[in-house]
Design a protein that fits this description.
Structural class: alpha/beta
Distance between the termini: 21 Å
Radius of gyration: 22 Å
Helix content: 10-25%
CATH architecture of the largest domain: 3-Layer(aba) Sandwich
Number of strands: 19
CATH topology of the largest domain: Rossmann fold
CATH class of the largest domain: Alpha Beta
Number of helices: 7
Strand content: 25-35%
Shape: globular
C-alpha cells in the first residue's frame, strides 16, 4: 500500500517494516527499516539525505524528517533519532513502535549531498553537534567506501561523553581508515584533560582548529591542511551553522563549498545580506498554494517575501527561513526578485524560474508565485 502526502510538494510514502531498533544513549535511538525487493528503486538515495516518517503521537498523526546514517552501498534505511522531551513525538515513536511494526516512510529526499569524485585527491572537513552527526556519518561511510584518495576530518561537539552518539561506529571507522580519517571530540559541559577540546564549536574554536590541527600538511610542505580543504559539511542547530559557516567563509572557503543541514527551525540569515535594493512600496503578490489562488499587498520590499506573507497569516510552507530546507520553493511566474542566498536550488531549477520565498526580495511592483510544484 502506498500513500501520496502533500508536504508543500507531493511526497510518496510507503509502508516499511521496522527491522531493527536500538537505544543508543538515554535520549537517542536508531531505527532500521526492511526494504522489500519491489521498493528497492524507490529507496535509492544519496549520502546526506533524509526520509519523512508518518506515525501516531498522542492521538494525532505527525510527519517528522530524520536523516539517514546508512550509506547508499549498504542498501538499507537507518535513522538516528533524538528524543527532545518525554512528551514529544520522538518519545512516542520510541515507546509505541517495535521491531516488526510498519510505518509510512517517504522516499528519500534532501540536498545535503556531495558529488562523488573517486579519482581525485580531496580534503573534506565536517563539523557536527549532537544528533547532527547522522547525515555526516552517512557521508563519511560513503566517501571512505567510494573515494580512496579523499581524506576526512571530523570535529564533533556534544555536551558530555555520556551524550556522544555513535561513538563506537565513529571510533571503528577512525581505526579502520586511520590513514584517511581523523576524528576530534569536543564537550561543552564536561571538563577535558586537554582544554583545547572543552567548549562549543564556534568561530574562536575554528581558528584554533585551523592553527593547531589543520596546520601542517604532509602532502604539501608549502601549504596547510586548511588550504587544501575542498568541501565543508556542517550539521546541527542554526546558530552553530551560522557561526561556523561565516567563520569558514572568512577563512577562505567559498560559500558554494560550504554545505549545511539544519536540525531545527531557524529564522535568521546564515550569511549577512550584503546588497542594497531600491525601495518599492505596496508590492502586489498573487500566489497559488494548495490549489487555491491568493492576492495580497505587502508594504514594501525591505523584508523577504516569505516573512511578509507569514506576518499576514498565510500558511506558506517553510521550515528554516534560511534558504536551506527548500520547503518554500516556488515558481516565479511574473515579476522580478533577488534571490539572496541559495543552498538548495540547482542551476537548472533557477533557470526554470524556481525561487526560495524565504530568501527572495521583490524587485518589481507585482509578483506572481506558484507554490504547487507537483
Amino acid at each position: 500500500m502506498e500513500q501520496q502526502i502533500y508536504k508543500g510538494k507531493l511526497t510518496q510514502f510507503h509502508w516499511l517494516k521496522i527491522a531493527k531498533k536500538e537505544e543508543l544513549t538515554k535520549n537517542t535511538f536508531s531505527l532500521e527499516f526492511e526494504i522489500p525487493e519491489n521498493l528497492h528503486n524507490n529507496f535509492k538515495f544519496e549520502a546526506g539525505q533524509f526520509v519523512s516518517v508518518k506515525f501516531q503521537s498522542h492521538g494525532a498523526e505527525v510527519i517528522n524528517d530524520y536523516s539517514m546514517t546508512s550509506a547508499p552501498y549498504e542498501k538499507k534505511i537507518s535513522l538516528g533519532i533524538k528524543i527532545n522531551s518525554p512528551e514529544g513525538a520522538a518519545a512516542e515513536l520510541f515507546k509505541n513502535y517495535q521491531v516488526g511494526d510498519e510505518l509510512l516512510v517517504s522516499e528519500p529526499s534532501g540536498r545535503f549531498t556531495l558529488v562523488s569524485k573517486p579519482s581525485e585527491f580531496r580534503t573534506i572537513v565536517a563539523f557536527a553537534a549532537g544528533i547532527g552527526i547522522t547525515p555526516i556519518l552517512s557521508h563519511f561511510k560513503n566517501i571512505l567506501h567510494k573515494e580512496p584518495r579523499t581524506r576526512l576530518f571530523l570535529f564533533f561537539g556534544n555536551k558530555s561523553s555520556e551524550e556522544l552518539v555513535y561513538r563506537d561506529w565513529l571510533d571503528t571507522l577512525a581505526k579502520t581508515y586511520s590513514d584517511r580519517l581523523q576524528i576530534f571530540y569536543f564537550f561543552s559541559r564536561e571538563k577535558t584533560a586537554d582544554q583545547f577540546f572543552y567548549g562549543r564549536l564556534d568561530a574562536k574554536k575554528l581558528n584554533l582548529i585551523i592553527n593547531q590541527i589543520l596546520h601542517l600538511d604532509d602532502t604539501d610542505e608549502e601549504s596547510t591542511i586548511w588550504d587544501a580543504v575542498d568541501e565543508v559539511l556542517i550539521c546541527g542547530k542554526g546558530e552553530m551553522i551560522k557561526t561556523l559557516a561565516n567563520a569558514c567563509y572568512h577563512h577562505g572557503i567559498p560559500k558554494k563549498n560550504i554545505h549545511f543541514e539544519l536540525f531545527e527551525e531557524f529564522n535568521d540569515d546564515i550569511y549577512p545580506i550584503e546588497k542594497e535594493f531600491p525601495l518599492i512600496e505596496n508590492v502586489e503578490i498573487d500566489f497559488t498554494m494548495f490549489g487555491k489562488e491568493y492576492n495580497t499587498v505587502i508594504p514594501n520590499n525591505k523584508e523577504k517575501i516569505l516573512q511578509q506573507l507569514l506576518v499576514q497569516k498565510f500558511d506558506v510552507p517553510y521550515s528554516c527561513k534560511s534558504g536551506i530546507c527548500g520547503s518554500c520553493e516556488c515558481m516565479l511566474e511574473e515579476g522580478e526578485v533577488e534571490l539572496l542566498e541559495n543552498e538548495y536550488l540547482t542551476e537548472k531549477e533557477e533557470a526554470k524560474g524556481h525561487i526560495l520565498a524565504c530568501m527572495s526580495i521583490a524587485k518589481s511592483k507585482k509578483i506572481k508565485l506558484n507554490f504547487d510544484l507537483i
